[in-house]
Amino acid sequence: MRYRTYKRLDLPAIDKEISAFWEAHRIFEQSINADERKESYVFYEGPPSANGKPGIHHVISRTVKDLFCRYHTMLGKLVLRKGGWDTHGLPIEIAVEKELGITKDDIGKKISVAEYNAECRKTVMRFKDLWDDLTRKMGYWVDLEHPYITFENSYIESVWSLLKILYEKDLLYKGFTIQPYSPAAGTGLSSHELNMPGAYKDVKDISAVAQFEVVKDEISDFLFDGLGANDRVYFLAWTTTPWTLPSNTALAAGAKIDYVRIATYNPYTKLPVQLILAEKLVGHWFNDEDLAEDITHYEATDKSIPFKITGRYQGSDLEGIAYFQLLPFSQPEDGDAFKVVLGDFVSTEDGTGIVHIAPSFGADDMRVAKKYGIGSLTLVDSQGKFTEGAGIFAGRYVKNYTDDPNYENVDIDITVLLKKENKAFNVQKYSHNYPHCWRTDKPVLYYPLDSWFIKSTVAKERMVELNKTINWKPEHTGEKRFGHWLENLQDWNLSRSRFWGIPLPIWRSADAQFEKCIGSMEELQQELDLANEKLGLNQQIPQDLHRPYIDGIILVAPDGQVMHRETDLIDVWFDSGSMPYAQWHYPFENQEIFQQNFPADFIAEGVDQTRGWFFTLHAIAVMAFDSVAFKNVVSNGLVLDREGRKMSKRLGNTVEPFETLANYGADATRWYMISNAQPWDNLKFDIEGIAEVQRKFFGTLFNTYAFFALYANIDGFIYSEEEVDLNDRPEIDGWILSVLHTLIFEVNEEYSNYEPTNAVRKIQDFVNDHLSNWYVRLSRRRFWKGDYSKDKIAAYQTLYTCLNTVAKLIAPVSPFFADWLYLNLNDASGKEASSSVHLTRFPISEDQMRQPDLEIKMGYAQRISSLILSLRKKENIRVRQPLKRVLLPILDTSFKKQIEGVKDLILSEVNIKDIEYITDTSGLIKKKVKPNFKTLGKRLGPLMKEANLKIQNLKEDEITVLEKEGVISLELADKTIELLLDDVVISSEDIPGWQVATDGELTVALDISLDDELLAEGTARELVNRIQNLRKQLDFNVTDRIIVSLGAQDQVRNAVSLFGDYIKDEVLANDIIVKDVQSGDEVELTEDVRVKIMLTLAT
Length: 1099
What we know:
Blueprint: H1 11-25, H2 27-31, H3 56-74, E1 82-85, H4 90-100, H5 113-124, H6 128-137, E2 143-149, H7 153-168, E3 172-182, E4 187-188, H8 191-194, E5 200-213, E6 233-239, E7 250-253, E8 258-265, E9 272-278, H9 282-285, E10 308-314, E11 339-342, E12 354-357, H10 363-372, H11 410-420, E13 424-435, E14 445-454, H12 460-467, E15 471-473, H13 475-487, E16 492-493, E17 495-496, E18 506-509, E19 515-517, H14 521-535, E20 554-556, E21 562-565, E22 569-570, H15 572-577, H16 579-582, H17 591-596, E23 603-606, H18 613-625, E24 632-636, E25 639-640, H19 657-664, H20 666-676, E26 683-684, H21 687-715, H22 731-752, H23 756-784, H24 790-810, H25 815-829, H26 852-875, E27 883-889, H27 893-901, H28 903-910, E28 912-918, E29 926-931, H29 933-940, H30 944-952, H31 956-965, E30 967-971, E31 976-980, E32 984-989, E33 994-999, E34 1002-1007, H32 1012-1033, E35 1042-1046, H33 1050-1067, E36 1069-1074, E37 1081-1084, E38 1090-1097
C-alpha cells in the first residue's frame, strides 16, 4: 500500500473530500455512540436566530465551541451536541414589521395577530439552510437533525414548567413600576437587555435649567425675606430630557444639602430673578468674576450678568414649599402636586442640586412621589408621542422613532417656549450616554408599565456565591463584568407586550383576587375541563400555544369568576435561558438524559452574552434548582476589521464567511482565528493572516508529509517493521520524540485549561521550528541514502509518529486537515483501528519518552545556530559558503559539555568548520546591557529612572554573572531589587573581522574572513544545489545516476578540482565534465558568476 501523494496543498478541496468522508461513514454519529463512551462532557449550544444571515464572527464562536467538544470526545467522553434555534422575540417581530410595512399598532387592525404570527413563523427559519451550510463547511459538529426549536409546543411546555416552579416559590409578581421601554418596539425591556453591549450610546441632546416660580405663602415666606413685593423667587432644576417637563409634578431637594438664594438677571428675558440652587453648584452656572455687591447697574446690553448671594438655607427647610406648574397643560388626578419633596438620590455632582420630578418617567421620581402622595402626569403615549393633554405639543414624537427625515426636535420647541415665558435659565447642547433599544437602535424611555417580574433580587446573594464556582475564561469577565452585574441585580421584568413569543401562562380574574399559573399541558387540560364544566364551554387545548389561540382559553376561579390569560409574552431571553431543560422536554420526558446533561461542563458565546444568555442560564438554574447551569465558560471577543474598527455594511468592511472558507479552507480560517489572539480578546481580522497560516503552517505540514510519502513509497515503508528501540535510534530521534511528548503534555494542559491559543501556538512552533526546520532538514540524508537500514527505518518511524501525533493534536482546531493527514498515513500503514482521527484517543505524554537534558542541549544547538545564521544574513554570506570558526564564550563546564554533544550538528547546520570555546571575553567581546522596559517598568514604577542608569553601567563581570545565574542584586537608593535576565536586553559590539550576536545568556562571535579553499567549497555547494534543482525540473527519479557537464569558468574549475568527489556523491553523478557547454541551462551561482549546466542520464 502506498502513501497518497499530491502536487500541491489545496485546503478547500480537502474540506470537501473529508466532509464527504464524514457523511458517508457517519463519523460524527460514531463519535457520540453512548455504548462506547461512559463519561459525559456536557455542552450547551446557545441558539442562534435563523432570520438573519451568519457572519464571520459566528465562525470564531463556533470554532471555540467545536474545538473543546472535539477534544473531550478524543478523551473518550460522550459529548452530545444538540443544535437549537432561537425563534421568538423582537429581532423577528421588528423584521416582519419592516417587511410588511406596518407598526405594532397595525397588528390586530390591518393584519390579524394570527396572520402576523404566521409571518413570524415563516421568517424565523428563512436562513436555516444557510446556517446549516456554514455549520457543515466550517466543520462544526452539532446535531442538526434533532434541534430544539423554541417555538415548538414541547419547548413552550418546558418553559411553562420553569415559570411554575418560580411561581410556587413566590418569585413571580405583578407590579406597576417605571421600566425601560422601547416605543419603537412597543414593549418594555429587562435590565439585562438595557445593558447589552452598545445599548448605551453617546448622544447630544438639549439640556435645560428650568425656573420654577415659588408660590408665596406662609410656608415659603422665609424665601422672600428682604425682597420687594414684586420680586419673584424660582427654584432652578436641570434636565437632559426637556420633553418630560410638561409632566413635572414635583421638585426634589437634598435634606442635608446647603442651598443659596442668588439675585441676578435671566439671560434670555433680562428680567431680575431670585434663584435657589445648591451652594456647591453655583460655580457651574455663574462666573466668580461676576460676583458683585451691587447688581442694580446691570444693563440688558452688558456682556456679563452680575449676581450676588442673598440668602442661605438647609435642604430640609424647603420641604413642602409649593411652586407654580411650569407648563400647565394638564393636571394630575391621582394626588397632590407641585411641591418640594426630599429625595436621597439628590446630589451635588452636577445640575443644580434640585431635581425635576416626573413620576411617569423615572424610577426614583415614582418612588419619591408615592412616598409624598404626589400625582403623576403621563403625557407621552406608548408610541413615544405627546398625548392630547400636552397642549400645543400634542401628537409630536419626543424622539424620532419613525425615522422621519423632517422630524423637528420637540425639546428645542419646549425650551424656546420656556425662554419666552421667563422659565428657562440655561439651554444648551449636552453630550451624555443614553440607553437605546438593543434591537431597534432607538432611544429608550423610562415608562410606567403594568408588568410581571421575577424576584431575581431574592436570589442575588446565591447567584453571586455560585458564580464564584464557575471557571470563567477570561477570569475577569466572571469576576468583574458578570460579578458586578449580579451584585447590582434588579428584579427581572419578564413581561413583553408583543405578539410572537412564549405566552405568559398566568390566568387572572378581573378583580385580581384569583390567579392560576399553568405549568404543563396536563394541568391546562384539567383546568380546561373544570372551566368547560362550570361555564358550559367546549374548549380544547389549541394545537398552537401561541397567541391568539391561547388567548381564547378561559379558566374558572374557585368562586366561579372567569379568568383570562395575562396578555403579555415572556422575555425572549427566558426562552434561551431555559434550553438546558426545554431541549429535552424536561420534566415531561427524558428525565435521565437531562440528569446526565445538567449542568453543562462547557458553554461559549460572545462577550455580549454576559448579560444575555449567560445571565439567564445562571439566573434560572439558581432560582429553580439552586445550581449553576454551566461549570466552564469561554466568552469570546469581537471580530473587528484589520484596523480595529467594528465591522458594518456602512463601512464596507464586513467579511463574507462562505467566500473566506471557499478561498482559504475552513482549517486555515479556524487556525488563524484561534492562533492570532486569545478567544476572549478582540480579533483584528486580516484575510492576509489566513493566507499566511495556510502557507506557513499548513504548507509546512503538507510539505513534511509530502517529503515523508515520497521516500516512504520509494522504500516501501508502511510501518510493518518491528519498532526500533529508542536506545538504538540516533540522538536526534530521541530529541524530537522527547519534544513531541513535552508538546503532548503541554497541549493537553492548555486544552484542559481552555487556553486554545497557547496550545495551537505550541503546535505551530513544533511543526515549523522543530519538526520541519530542524529534524527533517538535519535527517534528510537518512531518507536519501540507498540502503534500507535500521537507521533509515528509525527515521521513518520517528517522522511517521510525529506526523500521526500532530494530526491528533490539531484535530480539535483543524478537523479536516487533521483527518486528511491521519487517513493518508493510516490508510497505507493500517497501524490504527479507528476509521477517523476524531474517533482516536487524544495522545498521552509518556514520561519515559521525555529527556529534558536532551531538549536543553538541542535547544542550545537551535539557538546558537539561529544566532550564527542571523549574522550570515546580516553580512549577506550565503549558508552554502563555509566559514572557518565561531567563538563561543562558555557559561560553565556543564554548558561546554552540552555544546560538545551537539557540536557536529551545529557545524553542519550553519556550515562552520569549528567552534572555539573561550572563557575570558575581555578584549574580544564588548557587551552592553539596557533595561527591558516592558517587564521592568511595571515592577519598578518611579524607581525605573534610577534603575536604568545602574543597569546601563553594569560591569562585564556583573553581566556575565547575570547570564550564568539568571539573577543579580541591584542596589538602588531606597531598596535592593533582584534583577532577572528577562529584565534586561544584552547586546555585543562587533570585533574587527568578526560579527557578534547575543540571545540572553548566549553570545557568538563569527569569523567572516574567507580564503581560496573556503570560496571553492562554497562554489561546490552552490553547484550541488543548482544541479539538484535541474534534476527536479527534468523529472529525473531520485535514484537516477547522471553525467554532469559544466561551463569552464575558473571558479567552477577550482571547485570541481578540490571538491569533485563531494559533488558527485551529492548529485548521484558518475562523472563531471568541465568544458565549454554550448547547450544546457544557464544558472546563477553567485551575483558575479553564471554557469551553464547540462545533465544527461548515465547509461
